[in-house]
Structures are given as structure tokens and as C-alpha cells.
Amino acid sequence: MDIPEFLFEPIVRAALTEDIGAGDITTTVCIPAGTTASATVLAKSPGVVAGLAVGALAFRLLDPNARWEALAEDGAKVGAGRHAIARVSGDARALLTAERVALNFMQRMSGVATVTARYVDLVAGTKARIIDTRKTTPGLRVLEKYAVRVGGGVNHRLGLYDCVLIKDNHIKAAGGITAAVTAARAQAPHTMKVEVEASTIPQVREALACGADIILLDNMGLNLLRESVEIIGGRAITEASGGLNESTVAAVAATGVDVLSIGALTHSAPAMDISLDFAE
């Protein structure tokens, strides 16, 4: 589940630049240069921890000598109360200036991991896997999709470049499912899968007939989902999408679909309550 630092360092640098601007005026005028401090990172709401390495980097970019001690790992589950998940020490000015950026990343990523874990638990006992979508915060996709994996989910395509996904507007613009799939097969790399969105049984049959690798069953009721799964019969991967939430996901998984794509994992996840408490 590890994420290479080179993927998120530019994101953290950009966040620090946004927050600090010409300088942290409060810290500069209040804290003498050379002051050192230590602090504890506390998770204060139940959930799944994610983003510790990202938070650590925010401090280290402002103080290369900062010492970070992780007291938990990404994927650790914490209950209600105050749970120490890391300690950091170093230049007090650097710690204060990086605090908000570090916490923002950890809170956001832990929130995504927590929501994902709840959905994964809800479909336990079925073959269905919980996957994310491209409904991510602009600029933070690599972090949010990593957090989905930490929560036990699986990533859908990372962007527009790593899967052919023919949706309703592509079908209209191309002149139909068969025309769109035929064009995709002729031009896309042979290693790339082709996914087709279908919202009716005739569309399911057409997508299957023209050789779609994955059929996205869009906004279908339970009866249509079950019928579609039966028609496809394992000849393509089935993906249910549209309107899925915590009250419906178990019933949808029970229809026999292979994966459930849920935008709410990233676009609606509430932040975990995480704080930084300085020692006296």
C-alpha cells in the first residue's frame, strides 16, 4: 500500500506555499528563532488512520532535522477518545508553520480511509469489491486513491489515460456502443481494457456482443442488476455504479456484481478529527 514520496512531495510543497506565502507572521513575531519544541499528533475520532508519511513530510520540508516518530501505521483503526498516532520534535517555528498543512492531509486521507472501510465491511461475505472513482479533490487524487487502498478498497482507473471507459456521451458522439467499441479496439493499446456503460438490458447485450471487457451497470435497480449479471454470465466484469450509499450497498453486492464504484468514498468523506498538541 506504500506510496512513493516523489509522488506526493510536490503536492505537499504546493500546500505549504499556499499557506505560508511571504511568511508565517504570527509565528515569526511570537517565537524566538532557535526555539525547539515537541508535540503529539492525536486522533480524536474513531476511524482508520492514513497519511502519516504525508504529514511527516510537511514538517521535514520546513525543518530537515525534525524528528518524526510514528506511533501507528496507515490502516490502523482507532476508537473513540484521544489516541497518540505520532510524535514530532524540532524547530518550534517550523512545527507551528507546518502544523495546519500536515493535519489537513492526515485528516482528509484518514476520512477517506474510514469511509472506505465502512463500505468494505458492509459487503463482507459477497464477492463484490469496493472501488473508487475520479470524483476526487483536484490535485489530491493520488493521495485520496491511496487512502482508499488503506481502507481496504480498490482503485478504479487513475485518470483518463489508463482505461477506455465508454460512457453515455461517448456512445452518443460515436454513433452507438458497437461503433465506439470497434473504434477503441482498433486504436487503443492491446494491453488496455475496454469498459462500456449500460443502463438497459439491450445495451448490456450489445456491449457483451461487441466484446467489452467490463460492463458498467449504471443506475440500475436490483432486479435489472440481477438480470444483467445473469445475462453476462462471467463473460465480462460487472460494475455497479450510481446512487450507491451505505444503506443500499449490501443489497447491490448481493446481486452478484463484481465491483461497486462509489464516488462518496472521496467526494463526501468527512475529515477525521486529528490535532497537534505541543508539550508544555
Automatic annotation (TrEMBL):
NCBIfam families: nadC (TIGR00078)
Gene Ontology biological process: NAD+ biosynthetic process; quinolinate catabolic process
Subunit structure: Hexamer formed by 3 homodimers.
Quinolinate phosphoribosyl transferase C-terminal domain mapped to chain residues: 112-277
A single MF term (Gene Ontology): nicotinate-nucleotide diphosphorylase (carboxylating) activity
Protein name: Probable nicotinate-nucleotide pyrophosphorylase [carboxylating]
Enzyme kind, highest EC tier: transferase
Keyword Glycosyltransferase: yes
InterPro entries: Aldolase_TIM, NadC, NadC/ModD, Nicotinate_pribotase-like_C, Quinolinate_PRibosylTase_N_sf, Quinolinate_PRibosylTrfase_C, Quinolinate_PRibosylTrfase_N
Domain spans labelled Quinolinate phosphoribosyl transferase N-terminal: 24-110
Function (record text): Involved in the catabolism of quinolinic acid (QA).
GO cellular component: cytoplasm
Organism name: Capsulimonas corticalis
Gene, per the UniProt record: nadC
Catalytic activity, as annotated: nicotinate beta-D-ribonucleotide + CO2 + diphosphate = quinolinate + 5-phospho-alpha-D-ribose 1-diphosphate + 2 H(+)
Signal peptide range: none
Family note: Belongs to the NadC/ModD family.
